């Protein structure tokens, strides 16, 4: 299952009181679709999933798919560090009409590689939907070894991986040893072009909330064989990609969306609004000063 090149790890809009801002979903989604997004990941890390209740997640899965319809893919973030709960949430998400699920590496409890394989295999069996596995050692402490990813790629509905290890050798090994119809997506905006250069498909992006058209153009140029043009765009966009993480994600993105008048959205504690010093950096990067 190819979900396209540009997937956006969508923020979850909250109002100033920390409640889910349901009215903000449609303008946010329309903005993403109009700026190049091929697919939307709902209730992932950028969606502040640890702070979302099960009821909120299920509402988001259904409502986002309802708004998107058949204009893009919708992936539900159903992975946690509890295999049993992840299975239950995946089963429920499957009934909400989404196009796939994304399952993050279990965090905090630090399973070994066999435990990781069992975790993902068990969840994949709970749905007929395509499964994107998600390797992000920076948040989950453990790295999913290439051999584990390759083993998982033999499961029919495990069709892709979001790779945020930052290890290009590991990523190349995965691409070399998985089936041609298994897709590797960058989990870091700044690694998009390097990963595509070794055979990756695209990116699950945070920066696409703000520079979606440019990211899409960069990938299309590369895919068309216009390597120099893609590289020039990459170098131009790199400071903005990195700038989206001047503070804990998605705080900078939410501040920019507010400033640009796309939606009004606040982070949910324990994340706090952007500090003035970080906001000044964002304004300079995005030419708002």
From TrEMBL:
EC numbers, comma separated: 4.3.3.7
Single GO MF descriptor: 4-hydroxy-tetrahydrodipicolinate synthase activity
Binding site for pyruvate: 46, 204
UniProt site positions, description: Part of a proton relay during catalysis: 45, 108
Signal sequence bounds: none
CDD domains the UniProt entry points to: DHDPS (cd00950)
Keywords on record: Amino-acid biosynthesis, Cytoplasm, Diaminopimelate biosynthesis, Lyase, Lysine biosynthesis, Schiff base
Gene3D superfamilies assigned to the protein according to its UniProt record, in alphabetical order: Aldolase class I (3.20.20.70)
Catalytic center residues: 134 (proton donor/acceptor), 162 (schiff-base intermediate with substrate)
InterPro entries, per database record: Aldolase_TIM, DapA, DapA-like, Schiff_base-form_aldolases_CS
Protein's pathway: Amino-acid biosynthesis; L-lysine biosynthesis via DAP pathway; (S)-tetrahydrodipicolinate from L-aspartate: step 3/4
The keyword Transmembrane helix is annotated on this UniProt entry: no
Subcellular location: Cytoplasm
Catalysis: reaction(s): L-aspartate 4-semialdehyde + pyruvate = (2S,4S)-4-hydroxy-2,3,4,5-tetrahydrodipicolinate + H2O + H(+)
SUPFAM superfamilies membership: Aldolase
Keyword Protease set for record: no
Function: Catalyzes the condensation of (S)-aspartate-beta-semialdehyde [(S)-ASA] and pyruvate to 4-hydroxy-tetrahydrodipicolinate (HTPA).
Record family assignment: Belongs to the DapA family.
Subunit architecture: Homotetramer; dimer of dimers.
Name the record gives this protein: 4-hydroxy-tetrahydrodipicolinate synthase
């Amino acid at each position: 299952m190819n979900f396209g090149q540009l997937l956006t790890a969508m923020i979850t809009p909250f109002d100033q009181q920390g409640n889910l801002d349901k009215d903000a979903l449609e303008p946010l989604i329309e903005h993403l679709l109009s700026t190049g997004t091929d697919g939307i990941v709902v209730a992932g890390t950028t969606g502040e999933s640890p702070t979302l209740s099960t009821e909120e997640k299920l509402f988001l899965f259904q409502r986002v798919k309802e708004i998107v319809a058949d204009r893009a893919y919708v992936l539900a973030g159903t992975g946690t560090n509890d295999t049993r709960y992840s299975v239950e949430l995946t089963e429920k998400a499957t009934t909400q009409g989404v196009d796939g699920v994304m399952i993050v590496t279990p965090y905090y409890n630090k399973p070994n590689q066999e435990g990781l394989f069992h975790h993902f295999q068990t969840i994949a069996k709970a749905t007929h939907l395509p499964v994107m596995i998600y390797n992000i050692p920076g948040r989950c402490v453990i790295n999913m070894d290439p051999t584990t990813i390759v083993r998982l790629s033999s499961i029919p509905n495990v069709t892709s991986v979001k790779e945020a290890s930052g290890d290009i050798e590991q990523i190349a090994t995965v691409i070399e040893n998985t089936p041609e119809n298994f897709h590797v997506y960058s989990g870091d905006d700044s690694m998009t072009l390097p990963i595509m250069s070794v055979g990756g498909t695209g990116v699950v992006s945070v920066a696409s909330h703000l520079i979606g058209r440019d990211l899409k153009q960069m990938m299309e140029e590369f895919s068309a064989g216009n390597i120099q043009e893609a590289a020039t765009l990459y170098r131009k966009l790199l400071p903005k990609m990195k700038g989206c993480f001047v503070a804990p994600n998605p705080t900078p993105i939410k501040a920019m969306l507010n400033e640009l008048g796309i939606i009004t959205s606040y982070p949910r504690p324990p994340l706090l609004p952007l500090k003035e010093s970080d906001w000044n950096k964002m304004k300079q990067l995005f030419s708002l000063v």
